Each structure stands twice: as C-alpha cells, then as structure tokens.
Amino acid sequence: MATDFKSIPIIDISPLVAKFRDPDMAQDPTVCEVVKELDRACREAGFFYVKGHGIPDSLIKEVKSLTHKFFDLPYEEKLKIKMTAAAGYRGYQRLGENITKGIPDMHEAIDCYREIKAGMYGDLGKPMEGCNQWPLDPPNFKQLMEEYIGLCTDLSRKILRGIALALAGSVDALEGEIAGDAFWVLRIIGYPGVSSAEGQDLTGNDIGCGAHTDYGLLTLVNQDDGITALQVRNLSGEWISAPPIPGTFVCNIGDMLKIWSNGLYDSTLHRVINNYPKYRVCIAYFYEPNFDAAVEPLEICIKRSGGIRKAGKAVYGEHLVGKVQTNFV
Ligand SMILES: N=C(N)NCCCC[C@H](N)C(=O)O
Ligand SMILES: O=C(O)CCC(=O)C(=O)O
Ligand SMILES: [Fe+2]
Q1: Where does the record place the Fe2OG dioxygenase domain (predicted)?
Q2: 69 FRET partner, CA 20 to 30 A, in 15, 287, 299, 309?
Q3: Is the C-beta atom of 98 inside 6 A of ligand 1?
C-alpha cells in the first residue's frame, strides 16, 4: 500500500545489472541491498528512479530527439500512421483522442505493442492483432525504437529479478508462466506547452494525461529534460512531483504486479500536467506479463498480508483489451 511519501527514491541498480547472469546472485550482498531498496520503494510509493541501469545515455536522448521531430511534423504527415481498431489499436492518435475517466487527454501519441499474429491467442488476442505502424519520417525511427525496446525489455527483466527476490525469494518467480514470454507496450507521447495548444486560455490547467494506473508489471519512463510534469499521488491524496533526473528512468508498478503481490505493492495513481510553454515528450515503455497469463496473488504474499487474499485471478490480455477499447473517443 502506498504511504504518505513526499519524494521518490533513487536506486542504483548496478549490482543487479552486473550479477544478472550469476546463478548465485541471490547470495550477493550488493544485490541483497538493492533488493531491499526496491522492496521498500515498491511498498512505500510504487514509484522509484533507477540509475546504473546500463542503457546508454546517448540512446535515451536520441529517442527523445526523434520523438520531438515526429510530433513537429504537419498533422497530415502524422495521420499517415493513424491508429484504428482495425490496425490493432497501433499507430498515431491526435491530441484529445485518448480519454481517461471520460475526459480527453491533452496529449498526442504513437502506441506500439508487441506483434500479435493472427490467431495467436484466439479471441483474446483478436482486438490487438497486427504489426506496428512506424513513420517513414524521421528516417531511422523504427530502427531506433526497436533497439530501445530491446534494451528496455532486458532492463525490466533485471529489475523484476530483484522484485521477484523481494516478494518470492527466487530470481525467476516472475518468468515462466507469468512473464517468460513478456508482452510489451511502448507509448511515444507528446504534450503541448500551455500557450501552444489551440484555443486554450492560458490557465495552465489542462491535463496532459488524467490520473490512472499502469496495466502490467513495470513501467520505464524516459521523460524530457527540464520540465516537471509527472505527478504521483500519495496516500493522503497529495500530488508529489517526479521531476526529470538526467541518466535515470522513473519506474512504477502496474496493476498485474499489484495483484501478484496481493497488494503489498500498489499500482500508484499518477497524472501528467505540462505547465511549461515548451512542448514535452515522454517515451513510456511498459513491461507486461505474457499476453495470456492468468495472474493471481502469490501464496507467500497472501501469508504476509495476514492470510487475506485481496484480489482474484486476472488474465492480462483481457485487462489490456478492456482498457484499450475504452481509451479512445
Ligand atoms: N499502457 C498504459 N499503461 N497506458 C497508460 C495510459 C493511461 C491513460 C489511459 N487513457 C487510461 O485511462 O488508462
Ligand atoms: O508522461 C509521463 O511522464 C508519463 C506517462 C504515463 O504515465 C503513461 O503513459 O502511462
Ligand atoms: Fe502511466
């Protein structure tokens, strides 16, 4: 459960990264220290920054710079990869097309999902079937994003080994049936600055993305430098800022990890408000369970919660499809 945290901790995960392939990593004292810090952050806030993650800073920056270039293009150009239900909800959505709790969000985005081939998950997967729609301009966009997705997938797996150690006492508890064939989502997002959104009165009250939780296991947020816009809700309802810290990712727990941990970890509510005059981009990578995974509370987590089971079984793909089908106007 979240607490009244006032700030979001920064965790140096380099021991987890270094010992990833070490069969005895669970006995390593530096790994154990990171596991403790992760566990504490997940219990208290459901949010933390990671440094020492090993993804090159040049790539993290390049991803943001190409994202700016794409959103700078004329609307007609962006529409060439328009998101539709027929395209498996993959592609470009205009400003206000995504809705959160019934209210249009002041962001535009490209949504990408791991490929689902026809028939792969039967009726469960049908709505999301398809390949991603990548823009031809800027050149190299697809290649760069795919490289980035690969590295984010590897990194998430490393962090989840730490979390699996904390919750289940074994490094691979979140692999196999739960996430051995992990699904992923990438949202490439742009939030106009306060004065540039057309027809807005400069009150700066427009919500870039309304309060929500993420759907899967773990999110890696790569946000623009110099703009504080992401806010995280603590137990008493205060919004705590998560300012960009160069060289880090903001990480947060998703709904499926909340279920698996029997609520020991919460998928914390968060929102985005860009009150700056500058256009802000964010690339959010979501590491999710296997598309057809049935996720339920882990026995040991139920024991640690006084023997009370706090959630039933949820099939990840159903949860995602339910969200996606109600997220758009
Ligand atoms: N794949 C993820 N987690 N996307 C987060 C989007 C949150 C906004 C969405 N309209 C909603 O209400 O969920
Ligand atoms: O823009 C951000 O900083 C976070 C975006 C987010 O929360 C999401 O896409 O789920
Ligand atoms: Fe989010």
Answers
A1: 181-289
A2: 287
A3: yes
